[in-house]
Design a protein that fits this description.
Oligomer: single chain
Number of helices: 10
Helix content: 40-55%
Strand content: 5-15%
Number of strands: 6
Number of domains: 1
Radius of gyration: 18 Å
């Protein structure tokens, strides 16, 4: 390979549509990672975090809560985006493997434990450790420029990659917009702490029941209001509105 490995996989991710790329040292969070995924996941020392920014125009349909908007949002911002992220992760893992390293592409959105309602690894934790944002009161990864309007995927590896950053301090301050808008009151408003159980911040079962109820009533399992309302994402919407009025 002519390019350095870090550069090569970053370039590949970008060429396939990634808007965010980071490399995280997982060492400081190994205990947290072990509790979630066990030895098969905790044995990796590095995570490559890849993100795709969601369409603001589709995210801005969420508060209307109509069937058509929900269908459009779920298709493009969830189903299609997850497929693209998974394709990027598999391609990057293949490059790392060909270079002699172990590589484990974690699906963008695939539940592996119905009891605990979780996957084997936290993409937002990888992005946080890579310096791409902080975990907000909504338990979503919040980026400085686009808020939580990003979907993520991760590749776990032992490749000799250089970490791209360090965990970003929270910038949520006193804001409780995501906590207040939640129709299930699922958030407590506490900031992320790896030493605390998820339940200290988020009642994931309440959120899961809400989606199930939407489906049972013939609706589309889409909410996303916490994602929509975050000021770090909405500032882009407000800028576009200001430009239209001029």
């Amino acid at each position: 390979m002519s390019l350095p490995l870090d550069t090569a996989i970053r370039s590949l991710a970008s060429s396939m549509g990634a808007d965010f790329f980071g490399v995280a040292d997982l060492g400081p969070a190994r205990d947290f990672i072990f509790r979630q995924g066990g030895d098969r996941i905790a044995r990796y020392s590095i995570a490559v975090a890849i993100g795709i920014r969601l369409s603001d125009d589709l995210v801005d349909l969420l508060p209307e809560q109509d069937q058509e908007g929900a269908i459009l949002y779920r298709h493009n911002c969830y189903e299609v985006t997850n497929q693209v992220l998974d394709q990027i992760a598999v391609r990057l893992a293949g490059v790392l493997q060909r270079e002699g390293s172990h590589a484990f592409p974690v699906p963008a959105s695939r539940r592996t434990d119905d009891g605990e309602i979780r996957s084997v690894f936290s993409h937002k934790l990888a992005a946080h450790l890579a310096g791409l944002g902080w975990i907000g009161k909504s338990c979503l990864l919040v980026t400085p420029d686009h808020g939580p309007r990003v979907r993520w995927v991760s590749v776990l590896t032992d490749a000799p990659l250089t970490p791209s950053g360090s965990p970003m301090n929270t910038r949520c301050g006193d804001c409780t917009a995501c906590v207040d808008i939640c129709p299930q009151h699922a958030f407590t408003g506490r900031m992320f702490n790896p030493e605390e159980p998820r339940e200290a911040r988020f009642d994931v079962a309440a959120c899961d029941r809400y989606f199930a109820e939407l489906q049972q009533s013939g609706g589309v399992a889409v909410c996303g209001l916490c994602l929509y309302v975050c000021p770090y994402g909405k500032k882009k919407e407000e800028t576009r509105s200001d430009n239209k009025r001029r």
